[in-house]
Write a structure and sequence with these properties.
Strand order of the largest sheet: 1-4
Radius of gyration: 19 Å
Strand content: under 5%
Shape: globular
CATH topology: ABC transporter involved in vitamin B12 uptake, BtuC
Number of helices: 12
Helix content: over 70%
Order of helices and strands: HHHHEHEEHHHHEHHH
Distance between the termini: 38 Å
CATH class: Mainly Alpha
Length: 294
């Protein structure tokens, strides 16, 4: 029973991390209707900011990483995405992929293609005993951060004028603009939130692995897109469900699969979304790629 509790906490923590990734992806899609493939590079750049600021107190370095994620996301939206906002989806897709390639190439040329190690506080790598269960402090941090983010987004969406505008834009962007919603401001806020979430994920990944590399954002962003598809396009709550499901499945399979099948864990994990989509083509909550909704 103790082992089961340990495994469930591990699964929930990984699911929480995946949920944060999925939320960062879907918050832009919800407002703008665009899948941002550069989100992985936002994660990577925030992690490198933590690496560059490693000489500062850890809290200050984390703050710098969060600020970096927000600034990079808002800057990219203004320079790259705003000019193609009214273009067709193919132009937006190409722009998103180009931004991702440019950011990764710049970091590779400026730093190094090889992974760089970074020291994290000893407290993070330690564990806490709970009724016979040894829980890594990093998992407490991940779960706590996920809860705070979900609560904060819920408050923003349903208790503020900005949230009301975001929900209105998600239902009908053109109508929202006619009613006085400022499109530029709203989309910039969405990218800022996405950048902050990317930075939080970048910090958690650094604390988990102890290193940074130019390609570290690729796997997380793929996981985020799969989680969004599972939950339903444009559904923020669906993104959370998709992330939790994907993370829990990956963690539990890694623990309970027979040794001979462990190398096939990822193949099994990503087969499950295919099965889900066969029976629920628009995701678990019925999202629509042609019409973003909160």
């Amino acid at each position: 029973m103790t082992e089961l509790g340990q495994n469930l906490i591990d699964a929930l923590a990984l699911g929480g991390l995946y949920a944060l990734i999925a939320l960062g992806v879907t918050v832009v899609f919800t407002v703008m209707g665009m899948m941002n493939f550069a989100h992985g590079e936002f994660i990577m750049l925030s992690a490198y900011a933590l690496y560059v600021l490693a000489g500062l107190p850890f809290a200050a370095a984390v703050g710098g990483a969060l600020l970096t994620g927000v600034v990079i996301a808002v800057f990219v939206e203004r320079v790259a995405f705003r000019p193609v906002r009214n273009a067709d989806l193919s132009a937006q897709l190409v722009t998103s992929l180009a931004v991702a390639a440019i950011l990764q190439s710049v970091v590779t040329a400026a730093v190094d293609v090889r992974a760089q190690s970074i020291e994290t506080p000893a407290l993070i790598s330690e564990s806490t005993q709970l009724g016979g269960i040894s829980v890594p402090n990093l998992e407490f941090l991940t779960l706590g951060l996920t809860a705070v983010v979900l609560g904060g987004l819920g408050w923003l969406l349903y208790r503020t004028r900005t949230g009301l505008a975001m929900r209105a834009a998600a239902e009908n962007f053109e109508m929202a603009r006619l009613l006085g919603v400022r499109a530029d401001r709203l989309i910039a806020i969405a990218f800022a939130i996405s950048g902050a979430l990317a930075a939080a994920v970048g910090v958690l990944l650094v604390m988990q692995t102890g290193q940074v590399s130019p390609g570290m954002g690729l796997t997380p962003v793929l996981i985020g897109f799969v989680a969004v598809v599972i939950g339903g396009f444009g559904r923020m709550f669906g993104a959370v469900i998709g992330g939790l499901l994907l993370g829990a499945l990956s963690s539990l399979l890694g623990t309970y699969l027979p040794d001979d099948l462990v190398p096939f864990r990822d193949a099994i994990v990503f087969t499950v979304p295919v099965v889900i989509l066969i029976f629920r083509p628009h995701g678990l909550l019925g999202g629509d790629i042609n019409k973003a909704r909160v």
